[in-house]
Amino acid sequence: MQPTLFVADLHLSEDRPDITAAFDAFMSEQAQNAAALYVLGDLFEAWIGDDDTSAFNQHIKQAFRRLTESGVPVYFIHGNRDFLVGKKFAHQTGIQLLPEQMVIDLYGEKVLIMHGDSLCTRDHKYMAFRKKSRGWWWPNLMLALPLWYRRKVAKNARKTSALHQKNSSEQIMDVTSSEVDRVMTEAGVSKLIHGHTHRPAIHKFQLGGKQAQRIVLGDWYSQSSVLEVRADGMQLHAKSF
Questions:
Q1: What pLDDT was estimated at residue 142?
Q2: Which residue among 18, 62, 73, 95 has the highest number of C-beta atoms inside a 10 angstrom radius?
Q3: Is 33 annotated as a binding residue?
Q4: Could you give all domains of the chain from N- to C-terminal order, each with its CATH number?
Q5: Is 11 known as a binding-site position?
């Protein structure tokens, strides 16, 4: 049986050809044999708009187009680095855009999938930015600016984010347990898959007196982290590059 694959936090950029090479290998090999591929945000280090037609972006889009045209459905949830991915990108690649939170049927089990940034409620500075960036006016304002200026904004934002992460405690940067419980209870699920924290693990805990699981996908800064799910179980893989 073909597996369903989940990835997140690839952070693709022209500055990291090693990650791009790992992505190309994944798309042409492992992903080709999948029942479906779910990308749970931060595919790019920064996505400044669908009108950025650089050679690098075209390369990534073509990889997705080849996969979807081969018959593998690809689903995408926005992350905090690529929330400007829009309908044009989806049309050009054949991927399907999903809402921020989605309950899917995974081999007969209801599973909640998301990027995971909304779970980090103790990071008040980021949560304030998230509220602004996911609203209606800020994205439209950004997309109205010229590409060169958006590139500058994105570069400065990455520097600010790196400094914020360096100066914040691990507890603040990780998910809030009570928020995990809340979203899973509201969704009526006992299994959650997300990325964002770059702390790959399969957590088992009690939720409403029942066994629950939270699966965290790893990032691709030093390895290709892939969750492989089949009807008889799951495996969280990490291949160094």
A1: 85
A2: 95
A3: no
A4: 4-240 (3.60.21.10)
A5: yes
CA distance 46 to 113: 21
In this prediction the pTM is: 0.91
- Is residue 213 annotated as involved in ligand binding? no
The annotation status of 181 as a binding-site residue, yes or no, is: no
Judged by DSSP in three states, 215 sits in strand
Question: In the chain, which residues have pLDDT < 50?
Answer: 167, 169
174 is in an annotated binding site: no
Question: 210, 225 in Cβ contact below 8 A?
Answer: no
**HSE on the CB side for 23, CA within 13 Å?**
26
203 is in an annotated binding site: no
Task: Provide the token pair at 194.
Answer: 């997300």
Looking at residue 8, its pLDDT comes to 98
What strands lie across the sheet with 191-194, from one edge to the other?
101-106, 109-114, 191-194, 210-216, 201-207
Amino acid 62 reads Q
- Residue 154 region by backbone torsions, left for phi larger than 0, else alpha for psi between -120 and 50, else beta: alpha
pLDDT tens-digit series, residues 78-89: 999 899 999 999
Residue 165 assigned ligand-binding role? yes
Question: SS3 letters for 142-166?
Answer: HHHCCHHHHHHHHHHHHHHHHHHHH
CB-based contacts of 178, cutoff 8 Å, min separation 6: none
DSSP letter, residue 220: S
196 annotated ligand-binding residue:
yes
Q: Is 59 annotated as a binding residue?
A: no
